[in-house]
Amino acid sequence: MMVGPDFVTPSTKLEDGWQERNKTQFAEAVSLVRQEQINPVTWWQAFDDPALTKLLQMAAQQNLDLQTAALRIYQARSQLGISDAGLLPSVTAAGQATSSDSATLRQIGVPVTWELDFWGKIRRGIESSLASYNAAVASYYAADVSLAANVASTYINLRNIEALIDVAKQNLALQGESLRIAQARYQAGSTSLLALSQAQTRYQQTMAELPKLVGQQQKLQNALSILLGQPPGFYEQQFGNAAANKQFMKEPKTLQVGIPKDLLRRRPDVLAAEYQAASQSALIGVKKAQLYPSFSLDGMFSYLNASVSYEGGNTFKFEGSNTSGGAGFTLPIFYRGAIVDQVRVQDAAFQQAVLNYQNTVLQAQAEVEDALSTIATSRSRTESLRKALSSARQAAKLAVDLYESGQSDYSNVIVAQQALLSVQSDYTQSRTDTLLGYVQAFKALGGGWDGSMKVPKLPNELIAEMEERTDWGQALKQPETPRLVQVLGVTQ
User: Fold this and answer.
1) What is the pLDDT at residue 136?
2) What confidence category does residue 179 fall into, taking pLDDT thresholds of 50, 70 and 90?
3) Is 489 left (phi over 0), alpha (psi -120 to 50) or beta?
4) Which of 63, 265, 285, 437 could crosslink 124 through cysteines, CB 3.0-4.6 Å?
5) What's this model's pTM, rounded to 2 decimal places?
6) CA 131 to CA 121: how far, in whole Å?
7) Which residues pair with 330 in a beta bridge?
8) 56 within domain boundaries
9) Residue 465 falls within a domain, yes or no?
10) Comparing C-alpha atoms, which of 9, 22, 14 is closest to residue 365?
11) Distance separating alpha carbons of residues 2 and 280, to the nearest angstrom
12) Buried b vs exposed e over 85-122: b needs ≥16 C-beta within 10 Å?
């Protein structure tokens, strides 16, 4: 028998469907594909950007945080091996040899102890370790999903900064032409020094924006380099011209969302939280079993060779072996109160794990809803800004023409050009927000994970380094096998 609770997946609060995102005055409709089987595994292809695809491939292979998550799997598997060994008898060997002028003694003994897992303490420990191992695998894929979203978001933000730099340069050229006109008119006595000063001020203000944008660009480039597991400067060297003279990234035509219940099997972090709760549940049984008698079988095989010399040349020799066996039990008496408290500690920890699982599910639903809301509102804002951009360009051109012909004051040029720069920047940012909304949605839906729990293979150079330091046997080369030692009667 096995004492302690058998784990059951905790109940969760799940909606039957997502909130409707129909077109309203303030939000565009979001085209959603609702189907029971969702498969946003290669979601980045929807952006139709080869550079992004290559970045994600490199990050999956080289990112150091992801390699750390993979190593936790191998650590958990070794811990599982320790737990498995608890079901096997403990066999040791001890020997000694002594010699003096009159005696020589050689002795070897092989004691055997086997604890009978009558209450399931060892099996619950294995159950906990196996669940922890599976949690480590699921956590790896959760890290992989987050990494892909982080790379994509950083790349999109970088493209946004590059677009804003282009906007600033375009406006700088426009304001430079206005400054030239103001200088010509001032020299001709057709305008005041105030107008010229205003033109110079506006030109320098726009010029001052460029260093700030370039600084942000370099920070994002460095961030991408680190995500690729490379030193700062790597992205600029390898991808510096990837987005040059390129159109703005495409947004996906549809978004496959399924239903909220899909999150329970589509998000690896939800699965990891469930396994963590299962692991903690088994530890309750481990501690409860300590309240009951523990039974063990003991045995001993010993061999003795002795030689003793006496005065007069007589020598006594003895050689023989001995085998013994027995059984015993232990029962805590005065320590039971402490063990009861240990059970309570594990039960409280289990309840925390359950709440963490339930909260993870709620957060997952909120992340999807937030992403859909971002897409809907950003689309609507982009459409309004697109219309405003056309009129802002026309107003800026008209203001310059009127000023050049002497029919308008230069303040109108400043207002019009300020409005144009603001609308262009907002339009670019709004389009970026829509793209980021899609990335958030794909991440929230577990995008990038195909549901597999296959253990990732470590890089060859990392394997070589670890094997040079420690005897790993076949553990690093057989990632598909959770248990390197199969224990009779224990299933995976």
Assistant:
1) 94
2) confident
3) left
4) 285
5) 0.85
6) 15
7) 294
8) yes
9) no
10) 14
11) 15
12) ebbeeeeeeeeeeeeeeeeeeeeebeeeebbebbbbbb
Residue 48 to residue 96: CA distance in whole angstroms: 74
Give CA torsion, residues 150, 151, 152, 155, to 10 deg.
Answer: 120
On the CB side of 385, CA atoms within 13 Å amount to: 20
With a CB cutoff of 8 Å and minimum separation 6, the contacts of 321 are: 301, 302, 303, 304
Structure confidence by residue, pLDDT tens digits, 256-289:
666 667 777 788 999 999 999 999 999 999 999 9
Domain count, the chain: 1
The C-alpha atoms of residue 61 and residue 84 are separated, in whole angstroms, by 32
For 322-361, how does the pLDDT look when each residue is reduced to its tens digit (9 = 90+)? Answer: 888 888 888 888 788 898 999 999 999 999 999 999 999 9
Q: What is the pLDDT of residues 358-409, one digit of tens each?
A: 999 989 888 888 888 888 888 888 888 989 988 999 998 898 888 888 888 8
**Does residue 314 lie in a domain region?**
no
**What's at 67, amino acid-wise?**
Q
The C-alpha angle with vertex 442 and arms to 436 and 448, in degrees rounded to 5, equals: 125
> Would you tell me how many other CB atoms lie within 10 Å of the CB of residue 313?
6
Please tell me the distance from the alpha carbon of residue 224 to that of residue 218, in angstroms, as a whole number: 10
For residue 165, give the CATH number of its domain.
1.20.1600.10
**Are 217 and 162 contacting, i.e. CB atoms less than 8 angstroms apart?**
yes
The Cα–Cα gap between 396 and 417 comes to: 5
DSSP string across 318-378? EEEEEEEEEEEEE--STTHHHHHHHHHHHHHHHHHHHHHHHHHHHHHHHHHHHHHHHHHHH
Decide if 445 is inside a domain.
yes
Tokens 């689309």 found at:
379
The separation between the first and the last C-alpha atoms of the chain, rounded to the nearest angstrom, is 19
Residue type, 4: G
Q: Which two tokens stand for residue 220?
A: 């994002």
E strand segments, 19-122: 32-33, 90-91, 94-99, 103-116
Give the separation between CA 387 and CA 102, rounded to whole angstroms: 110
